[in-house]
Amino acid sequence: MDHLRELAIREAMFEYLDEMVAQSNDGNLSWEQTAHFSVAGELIALRQTRGRGIHKPRQLDAALSISTAFTGFGRQPPYEDSIGEDGYPRYKYEGTDPNLSTNRALRMAMECELPLAYFIGVRRGVYRPVYRVYIAGEDPLRNEFILSFARSEVGLDFTTLTAPEKVYAGRMTKQRLHQPLFREQVLHAYSSSCAVCRLRHTELLDAAHIIGDAEDGGEPVLPNGVALCKIHHAAFDRNFLGITPNLVVQINQRLLDEIDGPMLKHGLQEMHGGTISVPRRMDAKPDPYRLEQRYEAFLAAS
Known about the structure:
Helix content is 31%, strand content 21%. The chain is α+β, with helices and mostly antiparallel strands. It has two domains: 3-184, PUA domain-like; 193-301, no CATH class. Strands 1, 4, 5, 6, 7, 8 and 9 form a seven-stranded mixed beta sheet that branches. Strand 12 (241-243) and strand 13 (249-251) form a beta hairpin. The longest helix is centred in the middle third of the chain and has 27 residues, at 163-189. The radius of gyration is 22 Å and the shape is elongated.
């Protein structure tokens, strides 16, 4: 293996992705933008063709990127990539043969501590690039590789991690992999519009969790999300604003009794009693049970 060439091509890939992400409005890239990039006039395929996850271009000996296809909520993804009990994300083998060429290419990236790009499908033909990602270990019994975001963790003994280390790893996995996907799916489902005030500027919108991600039922899935502008997200998180199970907005009585500037009056008080807008698709609507749990917390704080 020409280690310097492997690293040079990867650095060129990261520079290309930096440029493409900077030009995007939301950090996501189209199918065409993830097709290839150029190094010294030579085209390098950026990721595998449709339906394949592990990609090793002909110019390299080790895998350059991995991909996970977009699947709608409730549908089984083609590869059951998940988070291990240690908090680190997993990436399944292609097939079950550990000596398949693509699996060997990913193993070589691990052995040589080479960084990769990870393309996560957030909707059809649209991908969220996550980079730099390392293959930190392998679990042949489960036919999967262990992913990390730090080169220093390659070769780590994942069986000896302490509880705080596992919690930290899980938090990083959610931050780097799950939250961007959650945000994209929620904003897309709500047509990039605040469910309370209908503001349509994506830069000012958040994907709010109904149940917090540290609580039971707080998974980053569409039925646990609602698109809110930053002021209404902050109010929702602090129980100044509640949403009933039948989608009615309630404002904390203390705020209703206050007299302040136009933001309080028009941004919050006038929202009281209104109904939030929700997606038409049933699988994207907020979960009534989660809303009920969250509304009980709002009432307890009022």
